[in-house]
Automatic annotation (TrEMBL):
<dbReference type="InterPro" id="IPR004546">
    <property type="entry name" value="Restrct_endonuc_T1M"/>
</dbReference>
<dbReference type="Pfam" id="PF02384">
    <property type="entry name" value="N6_Mtase"/>
</dbReference>
<dbReference type="GO" id="GO:0009007">
    <property type="term" value="F:site-specific DNA-methyltransferase (adenine-specific) activity"/>
</dbReference>
<feature type="domain" description="DNA methylase adenine-specific">
    <location>
        <begin position="135"/>
        <end position="445"/>
    </location>
</feature>
<keyword id="KW-0949">S-adenosyl-L-methionine</keyword>
<dbReference type="InterPro" id="IPR051537">
    <property type="entry name" value="DNA_Adenine_Mtase"/>
</dbReference>
<dbReference type="GO" id="GO:0032259">
    <property type="term" value="P:methylation"/>
</dbReference>
<keyword id="KW-0680">Restriction system</keyword>
<feature type="domain" description="N6 adenine-specific DNA methyltransferase N-terminal">
    <location>
        <begin position="10"/>
        <end position="120"/>
    </location>
</feature>
<dbReference type="InterPro" id="IPR003356">
    <property type="entry name" value="DNA_methylase_A-5"/>
</dbReference>
<dbReference type="InterPro" id="IPR038333">
    <property type="entry name" value="T1MK-like_N_sf"/>
</dbReference>
<dbReference type="GO" id="GO:0003677">
    <property type="term" value="F:DNA binding"/>
</dbReference>
<comment type="similarity">
    <text>Belongs to the N(4)/N(6)-methyltransferase family.</text>
</comment>
<dbReference type="GO" id="GO:0009307">
    <property type="term" value="P:DNA restriction-modification system"/>
</dbReference>
<dbReference type="GO" id="GO:0008170">
    <property type="term" value="F:N-methyltransferase activity"/>
</dbReference>
<dbReference type="InterPro" id="IPR022749">
    <property type="entry name" value="D12N6_MeTrfase_N"/>
</dbReference>
<dbReference type="Pfam" id="PF12161">
    <property type="entry name" value="HsdM_N"/>
</dbReference>
Length: 799
């Protein structure tokens, strides 16, 4: 059975995290990722001539595993494995596997390293077989581990990793996929960290491009080099050093220039000028713009990027929002950049996306190719589009897609994006703070004073629901009737609002049309999904499928196409991705597997069987519906009898009840009590209750046995059905009954949400203005008079 990506990720993380002990995650990651790297390159390249990675004799993962349990395991790993690999492949700053301060000493170190190596000995982790061509399973696992380590590392230690979602946005807005790229196309990251951002751009290019990166931290630059290899970019050139003070990529004495540059530099670097005299910078990065403040290095990195771009180059840099509005020296630099036309766009991101800081950031997009004559900047405020993910926020697939779509098309959306003319920016003294140009605040739900005083729903509030009335114009008349100019009354009882909406012929027609719209997409998508075969590329599959679904729903009324798109992407991440990778590896095979669990003594127990690719419930629903219906009836009967038993025990469980004399209500105690009171005429009522309990208990027991037998029979029948399934039957079950059915439910959920939103808003307006103030005042006066009357009758005078 093919290795599931989700299982790979979670098993690696849970095992590694369990062995971390008290070591800081930012340090522990070095050991885990090096092990992953050695395991991968050993599986992939050991013994292969002309491989891009050299595995010296005696330095493979197999050789490392042979060291388990040895008292000098750490020293032996350093000498026999790490050093030969590093020297043969120019890998710098590998971690010390014999460091007692991090790994413990003596037996603690031996056990920790032995157990850590054992995690990667899992037979399923044969990376020579489990790497689907075109899909970096191991590279993705590396990213998964990096993200978790960054999350665990705490403030100021997450700089080695740029969130993959942000990297995807940057890669796509550069437009590299639509450019004519080749091995001569160059991509550079001057603060590359572990290389994730650089790799996302390479992946987006779609063809082999040449990658360059520089990273100040020696250990992190080593991670970047390994990351390049894991992502099948072994020729990428990663250099270690301070980019601003000692840039490593030069053409003679000048900075080397590149086609594309991306970066996520350290925010507001206070030491940016260490080792550098900005006033006499040999590379003239600040000459035409100004020198950044001593304690704010953000523009130093942006100006380095600009200087590192070819005359036709494009770049994108993540910077804190302060660069958009801070004054003094930074204001001068910003003014010069805008006047020269280098800033193409600014994208405001949600807060708390980045590891190491919670402050909001933005992406500044620079473009030299179109700088001449640029008379405006395209701005996007995407700060509201995200999901919570533990302590951090994350961009969803739909957020990424919307940003890229809007930026690529330069499409203006109220409250989200607009192209701001240079003249408007000049009027604001070159302040680029996004709220000055985009009002992304949600409109306030205002209270209408006249409506509260005189009653009636303000017509302006009803007009605000125009998107609904465009689809169902007659529904408005069915829900509201005129009151006076500018105000309406609810035309139906408040309890009937939902029924009026759901039952209106126009709304029914809308739902029917949307159902037909989904069926049209289903008819187009299903043949392609059933045509998948071993060797397919899952990432291409989801890209094609999701883009088609998004395009299919664009322009449809009321429904947000990006919401529909997100449902598919969520289902892909949770379920469909693993299925697609299994098809890519093995084809359409629905094989069952026994569930074996070990108890505390290590004894194995058979807990049944499973098939994640084709769950039992789908086979039962299609081939054994009658048996399942019978089981459902038995379960319902059992639930009813159990409920009656519980009621009986509760009803007669008090001090005077029939069960009062019993220590515990069970069959033995009830029978014993019946024998005690058999000849007692005063205990007839008690005996009747006890006999009823016995009858219900026997009925419950019989139903449990019947249910257990029926479930076992159905389980055996379903288990026996799997080997009989043809490939076409498996395709039908997986594609129609599993994948499409799940998406169908989600899309129908969107329809329900639309109708519920309208129902909720109409009811809210009706209740808000249902009772005018004079009537409320009269009610209060009447209630006050009644209370005063009661008080007077009780002898109290209340004034």
């Amino acid at each position: 059975m093919a290795l599931k990506k989700s299982e790979l990720y979670s098993s690696l993380w849970s095992g590694c995290d369990e062995l971390r002990g008290g070591m800081d995650a930012s340090q522990y990651k070095d050991y885990v990722l090096v092990l992953l790297f050695i395991k991968y390159v050993s599986d992939k390249y050991a013994g292969q001539p002309y491989a891009p990675i050299t595995i010296p004799p005696g330095a493979s993962f197999k050789d490392m595993a042979a060291l388990k349990g040895k008292p000098d395991i750490g020293d032996q790993i350093n000498k026999k494995i790490i050093a030969p690999l590093a020297n043969a492949n120019q890998l710098s700053e590998m971690p010390d596997f014999n460091d007692p301060n991090k790994l413990g000493s003596g037996k603690e170190m031996v056990d920790r390293l032995t157990n850590l190596i054992a995690i990667f000995e899992d037979k399923r982790l044969d990376f020579s077989k489990n790497r689907a061509d075109g899909d970096d399973i191991l590279g993705d696992a590396y990213e998964y581990l990096m993200r978790h380590f960054a999350t665990e590392s705490g403030k100021s230690k997450g700089q080695f990793y740029t969130p993959a979602e942000v990297s995807r946005v940057m890669a796509q807005i550069l437009g590299i996929r639509n450019a004519s790229t080749s091995a001569d196309t160059t991509v550079y990251d001057p603060t590359c960290g572990s290389g994730s951002l650089l790799l996302k751009v390479a992946d987006e290019a779609g063809t082999d491009v040449t990658l360059y990166g520089q990273e100040k931290d020696a250990a992190t630059s080593g991670l970047a080099r390994m990351n390049m290899i894991l992502h099948n970019n072994p020729t990428a050139l990663i250099m270690q050093g301070n980019t601003l003070a000692d840039p490593k990529f030069l053409d003679g004495q000048s900075l080397k220039t590149f086609d594309y540059v991306v970066a996520n530099p350290p925010f507001s670097d206070k030491r940016w000028s260490t080792g550098l005299d900005p006033a006499s910078d040999p590379h003239e990065r600040f000459k035409h713009y100004g020198i950044p403040p001593d304690k704010q290095g953000d523009y130093a990195y942006l100006l380095h990027i600009l200087r590192s771009l070819k005359s036709t180059g494009r770049g994108a840099c993540i910077l804190p929002h302060g660069v958009l509005f801070r004054g003094n020296a930074e204001a001068d630099i910003r003014r010069n950049l805008v006047r020269k036309g280098y800033i193409k766009g600014i994208i405001g991101l949600p807060p708390n996306l980045f590891y190491g800081t919670g402050i909001p950031a933005c992406i500044v997009v620079v473009d030299k190719a179109e700088a001449h004559g640029r008379d405006g900047i395209f701005m996007i405020d995407a700060s509201g589009g995200f999901m919570k993910d533990g302590p951090k926020n994350r961009l969803r697939s739909q957020d990424i897609h919307k940003i890229v779509d809007v930026f690529t098309k330069q499409a203006e959306l109220p409250g989200y994006a607009r192209r701001v003319p240079l003249a408007e920016i000049e009027k604001n003294d070159y302040n680029l703070n996004l709220p000055r140009y985009i009002d992304s605040q949600q409109a306030e739900d205002r209270q209408d004073i006249e409506g509260h005083l005189r009653g009636g729903i303000p017509e302006a509030d009803v007009d605000a629901l125009q998107s609904y009335w465009d689809v169902c114009p007659g529904l408005r008349q069915a829900l509201f009737r005129p009151n006076r100019p500018g105000y309406l009354d609810l035309a139906v009882d408040k309890a009937d609002i939902r029924a009026t909406i759901y039952g209106h012929p126009e709304f029914t027609a809308f739902i029917d049309a949307m159902n037909a719209h989904f069926e049209a997409w289903r008819a187009r998508a299903v043949p392609g999904l059933k045509a998948l075969a071993a060797g397919c590329h899952p990432k291409e599959v989801i890209h094609t499928l999701s883009e088609d679904l998004l395009a299919h729903y664009k322009g449809r009324p009321l429904i947000n196409p990006y919401d529909v798109y997100q449902h598919l992407m969520d289902y892909w991440a949770g379920t469909m991705q693993d299925d697609a990778y299994q098809i890519a590896a093995e084809g359409w095979k629905a094989e069952t597997a026994r569930i074996i669990e070990k108890d505390k003594k290590g004894k194995e127990k058979d807990k049944g069987w499973t098939c994640d690719f084709l769950p039992k419930a789908l086979v039962v629903a299609r081939y054994f519906p009658d048996q399942q219906a019978a089981i459902d009836r038995l379960a319902a009967d059992l639930e009813g009898v159990s409920a009656r038993l519980a009621e009986l025990e509760e009803e007669h469980g008090g001090e005077e009840g029939a069960f009062a004399e019993l220590d515990k209500v069970n069959k033995g105690n009830v029978n014993a009590r019946l024998r005690e009171i058999r000849d007692d005429p005063e205990s007839k009522d008690e005996a009747k209750v006890l006999k009823e309990w016995l009858a219900l208990s026997k009925q419950e027991s019989d139903l449990k046995k019947d249910l257990k037998d029926a479930e076992a029979e159905l389980d055996a029948a379903a288990y026996a059905q799997y080997p009989k399934l043809t490939e076409d039957e498996i395709k039908t079950l997986v594609v129609d009954d599993k994948w499409i059915a799940a998406l169908d439910r989600d899309v129908h959920g969107e329809m329900d949400r639309i109708s519920q939103s309208l129902t909720k808003r109409v009811r809210e307006l009706a209740e808000r203005y249902d009772t005018p103030l004079p009537e409320l005042t009269a009610r209060v006066a009447g209630l006050e008079a009644r209370v005063n009357g009661h008080l007077e009758r009780m002898g109290f005078a209340w004034k």
